[in-house]
Amino acid sequence: MLFLAEAPAGSPPIPMTRIAAEARVPRKFLELILADLREAGFLLSTRGKMGGYKLSRPTHLISLGEIIRVIEGPLALVPCVSRTAYRACGDCKDEATCAIRHAMMRVRDETARILDGTSLADAAVEELAAA
To answer: Are 81 and 96 in contact (CB under 8 A)?
Structure first.
């Protein structure tokens, strides 16, 4: 996504082979990731000789949190604090008083705040500054 974010606005779609080479990701693995991101509405794909992938919306309107949820799943480290995939812990006696759960809720909330508050545009600028 960062590689695609660096493409100039209005540029043609970028072939998967180029994305794989630039990102140093195996093509088959990348294929699965790109399919998930396309299904989630982050990418547009074009078939054929001049085909490839491009972002479906401007980089400032895509957050890292959204991308990570599509690729990795929920941000919560334990299922009992997940907002999208809640599952009670089998060994917890009382969620309301569980100190670990309360700590993990804070971790989840801060993680979400940072990732949802960081756009792909922000991340691309930070990556360029670090280079």
So the answer is: no
